[in-house]
Amino acid sequence: MMFGIVLFGFFLKGVSADAVADVVLSCALVEEGVGGMGGGALFTRTPATLVLRDVAVGPDESLETLTPFVPPSIPDPELILFEAKASSPAIPNADVLLHADCNQQEVLCEISRYSPRGLQDAAGFFMVSLSVDGVDFSTALILQTSPVEQDRSTLVQNKLGLPLSRSGTLLTEVIFLVFSHIKSVSAPLKGQVLLNCGFRQQEVPLDPEVAVEWRLQHRGKGRKVLEMKTKLDDAEGSTAVEGERKGSSLDAARLVHEGDASMSLSGLQVEDEGTYICTVSVGSFHTQQVVQLHIRQPPHVSLSEGKRVSGSPQTLSCHCSKYYPLDVQMEWFSQAPTASEPEPFPNQGSLSSHRQHGDGTFSLSSHLSVPSSVPPGTRITCRVSHSALDAPLQVAVELQSPEI
Fold first, then answer.
1. SS3 state at 357
2. Phi-psi region of 168 (alpha: psi -120 to 50; beta: other; left: phi over 0)
3. pLDDT value of position 1
4. Cα distance between residue 130 and residue 127, in whole Å
5. Contact predicate 212/259, CB 8 Å
6. What percent of the chain lies above the pLDDT cut of 90?
7. Rounded distance, CA 350 to CA 353, Å?
């Protein structure tokens, strides 16, 4: 579980349309600790701070409330204070961090050590996971510490063993990041969806090749959906694609030129629902984003009625079919000829068992016994609520005079 972020302030570097600000975030440094009972690993969390430099401020941004961040007057080797630029490469939609505090949105931050594949000295690499609660903003940054001129007065951060700048910060640069503009998306059966994922790296590529892998994790099971490898110089014939799900695709040109690793899925089925993990690898570096896909299929609702015979109750049946997911609510209402508003029917009837179809959808019926004392002209309504519906569906019948 990540720690919340508190927005302390901003440092303005201009008041023009391309003004920038520095955002200060309270994070947690997460490290693996000593194994607990049963051999499971424990994790320790140490307070840390991340200063993102040069976050773009839009031309319509109110600048009066932005106050400068002031580093400690006396550098403290106990403090863990990371400093990184958010402009090269740019962090997409980083401006949402400017408003999170005012909008009372919790920002989640987690920093951990990072070990690039194949590199001997990995002491100066860190991964930062950032997301904003209730907002489609999520990114994972790879930071590399920058060289610091050292002399006898240079302080070393006690926990990390890395040299500090004159202001007491760990100077770093963002060398690679993977982001997503969508944390969760819903789509209907047989429909199409685009799962968003992208990456950025420094102007000088970390490696001439980029690889993207999409995996699906659901109910404890995982499988690879799509994998693509291609050259960043867009050389002809350099792209290799391995797709394990029919109807999955990724645009190689957009991947190379725009850093767009989004995957398209068509012909959606219930089994496509779950957690999708987008992993982007460039050279020794890789990180990922997670997107939730929910299948939502609205129900078809119909009403059938038995004959109304004098002195006997009449049976009404409301049928709710081919919906997903399982949860559905069925309610009965009645409105007498002289009433202005419907009211819940005293007896809410009986439900059948859920029936599951071959495509994974469900059906359910509700049966209502209407007493013979209910007068003709009364309107009986079946109302169905489901997560795939913007508003409840209603079907109704007006009671006729009984047959003699």
1. coil
2. left
3. 36
4. 10
5. no
6. 65
7. 10
Whose structure tokens read 């030129």?
257
Rounded-to-integer distance, Cα 384 and Cα 395, Å: 9
Amino acid at site 6: V
Q: What is residue 272's DSSP assignment?
A: G
Pairing relationship of beta strands 138-145 and 81-85 according to DSSP bridges: unpaired
Region of poorest pLDDT, from 81-85, 126-130, 234-238: 234-238
pLDDT in tens, 377-387: 999 999 999 99
For 30-82, how does the pLDDT look when each residue is reduced to its tens digit (9 = 90+)? 998 765 555 556 889 999 999 998 887 776 666 566 666 778 889 999 999 99
HEC letters along 295-355: ECECCEEEEEECCCECCCCEEEEEEEEEEECCCCEEEEEEECCCCCCCEECCCCCEECCCE
In angstroms, the CA 380 to CA 184 distance is 38
Amino acid at 7: L
Read off the tokens for 110: 């987690």
> Cα(1)–Cα(134) distance, rounded to whole angstroms?
16
Structural domains of the chain in order of their starting residue, each with its CATH number = 1-178 (no CATH), 182-295 (2.60.40.10), 300-398 (2.60.40.10)
C-alpha to C-alpha distance for 172 and 146, rounded to whole angstroms = 5
DSSP summary character for residue 71 = -
Question: Residue 281: CB partners within 8 Å, gap ≥ 6?
Answer: 210, 211, 212, 213
